[in-house]
Amino acid sequence: MPDSQPQPPDGATADPTALVLRGARLADGRTVDVRLRGPRIEAVSTAGALPPAPGTARVDLGGYLLLPAPAEPHAHGDTALTADPATEGPVPYTPEDVRRRATEAALLQLGHGATALRAHVRIGDAQGLGRLTGILQARRSLHGLAELTAVAVPRLLTGVAGADGLAMLRDAVKMGAAVVGGCPDLDPDPTGYAEAVLEVAAEHGCPVDLHTEAADPARLARLAALAGGVPAGVALGPCAGLGELPPEVAARAADQLAAGGVTVVCLPQGGCGGVAGSASSRPDGGRRVAPVRLLRAAGVRVAAGGGALRDVANPVGRGDPLEAAYLLASQGGVRAAAAYGAVSGAARAVMGLPEVRVEAGFPAELLAVRGERIEGALSLAYSRIVIHRGRVVARTSAVREYCDSAVAALPELPRQGRSNAGP
Ligand SMILES: [Zn+2]
């Protein structure tokens, strides 16, 4: 990536931890220079007003909108990229296979802008803790590029088989799974399952992140009531079934989720393999998504994730947070700024990460997107520069060139040779 870390002028001594972003547009319309030092934003000031810092690397962000970076609150790194033709036949789930796919998937998502990712990973079954081993290896591979955390997802936690599942869940947390997850709807005793998850989470002080379609109001009410007792927080997703309930029933469920302090992580781009049979599609084959407006109106914090990334649950999944935000804005009735908040601020909050604002003192987790306003950025978000811990870690540059007759029709169009004017 030779262009993304400009070198200081000859003879100058660079502070390798400093980086100046010049001429960036902010969401409030200001054009600013931003100085990063190490993992933090050190200063933000009117463009051209920062004192010169000889030798400091600079990135020109003229024409770019600078935003807090997105985060991915619902990835499936162990199954990602298994729908590709190269992996037809039985999918290998050795730790090395999982590590390679999860790393590649995380880098794709990092290129989209997600500098932190939470990956659900199945434990038990034939692989025991092998998939988690692969995810934790991917976490180490990605150090300095993106923060990957693992959610352990056990199969059964009640009855005779549940004893093994519970022991494995405890082992998973000791190994490094930072979040306790699971699918209560798949256990013969969903409430018993949820209670077991919460017990393990309480033992280790972990947050909880459960899969549910939320189509059973009574079960959801019990989950919401249990959630109130978890200090590290409870997330539920994708909750698509909530949208199929009668409006008054869904509204009551939303009130209960709000009272329990539950965050709903919706998946606007489609479902994931985490919920049996995946009920994220309707009998007519259509896709459904949690009723985001209704949830927000009830005071529920709603984050949006990518879900499946090219696995059997969504062979064309992109894992692009800006696409998730675009879908919330274009189909979910959510304003563009709030839609972006669902994939950035709310996503970071549910992941237990500190808030990011483009202000001095905040983490230097940033995404620059070509455009002037958030609406335009969600509409045509091709060119992106991703910053993690104060360092440019990915750059996507799109160049669109029109033929001469198109340029004659509208002279402002980018023509060949004016490559900086791309989307
Ligand atoms: Zn899932």
By CATH, the superfamily of the largest domain comes out as: Metal-dependent hydrolases
Strand content: 15-25%
Global mean pLDDT = 91
- Would you state the CATH class of the largest domain? Alpha Beta
Q: Major sheet: size, sense and barrel closure?
A: 8 strands, parallel
List SSEs in N-to-C order.
EEEEEEHEHEHEHEHEHEHEHHHEHEEH
| Widest sheet: strand ordering | 6-7-8-9-10-11-12-13
What portion of residues is helical? 25-40%
Could you please say which CATH topology of the largest domain applies here? TIM Barrel
Plain-language structure description:
With 423 residues, this protein is an alpha/beta fold. The protein folds into 2 domains: 18-68 and 356-409, Urease, subunit C, domain 1; 72-350, Metal-dependent hydrolases (TIM Barrel). It has helices spanning 95-112, 130-141, 159-175, 190-204, 217-227, 247-259, 292-297, 321-331, 336-343, 345-350, 374-379, 404-409, and strands at 18-25, 31-37, 40-46, 57-60, 64-68, 72-75, 116-122, 147-153, 179-182, 208-212, 234-238, 263-266, 301-304, 366-370, 384-388, 391-396. Strands 6-7-8-9-10-11-12-13 form an 8-stranded parallel beta sheet. Helix 4 links the parallel strand 9 and strand 10. The radius of gyration is 22 Å and the shape is globular. It starts with 17 loop residues before the first strand and ends in a 14-residue tail after the last helix. Zinc ion binds next to loops.
